[in-house]
Amino acid sequence: MPSAIVYGGRGALGAAVVGWFKQQAWRVISIDLVTNPNADGSVVVSAADQGLPEQGARVAQDVEALLDGSKVDAVLCLAGGWQGGNAASSGFLGSADQSIKQSVNTSLIAAAIAARHMSPGGLLVLTGAVPALEGGTPGMIGYGMAKAAVHHLVASLALPGSGLDGSRVAGLLPQILDTPANRNAMPSADFSAWTPLATVAETLFKWASCPGACESGRLYKVVTKDSVTTIE
């Protein structure tokens, strides 16, 4: 049975991806702050593990116990969150720190898990952001910086000598996802420009299932217009 690990498996997108892969008869392990009851196994990240080495070691230990020597075909890091703020904002350093923890640290841990537990030819996906491709992000400096670091990590991991030789590494760059939380926060927005979660889940499944479906080292922008989504 093919298998996948979804980091952020209890968030809106992560839960949709877990559900879709399960429907396709994959075994799925979720990593998140809380258990995903629909996954075959869950690793719960402890708030007490403040540092990256401590958190990474704890997650790695729990993943290894669940896998019990087996390999996975995909590691999908969908964890993250948006934080705004410029250098003059009162919460600037805190929001930047949160962005690093949610985007950079989770991506690094996912990469370490993939290097240790993924089958040859497997797929690692990390989540970036379109604004981080476009130069500076003055109104969300910490977020943009963190996502730019994720983009660099994708490029590095796809190169020989990265520890993931023979595997595929891709960046997923969604814009606005169509989630209940986003609809509640922006009820007057143009929902036809928002990407359905199912579309992303189906795309990731295609990438994980078909070796030639995505190019290693590439950052894929997810663009939705007039309710039509393109992955480019």
From TrEMBL:
Domain of life of the native organism: Eukaryota
GO biological process: L-phenylalanine catabolic process; tetrahydrobiopterin biosynthetic process
The keyword Manganese is annotated on this UniProt entry: no
Record bears the keyword NADP: yes
GO molecular function: 6,7-dihydropteridine reductase activity; NADH binding; NADPH binding
Pfam families: adh_short_C2 (PF13561)
PANTHER family: DIHYDROPTERIDINE REDUCTASE (PTHR15104:SF0)
Subunit structure as annotated in this protein's UniProt entry: Homodimer.
Descriptive protein name: Dihydropteridine reductase
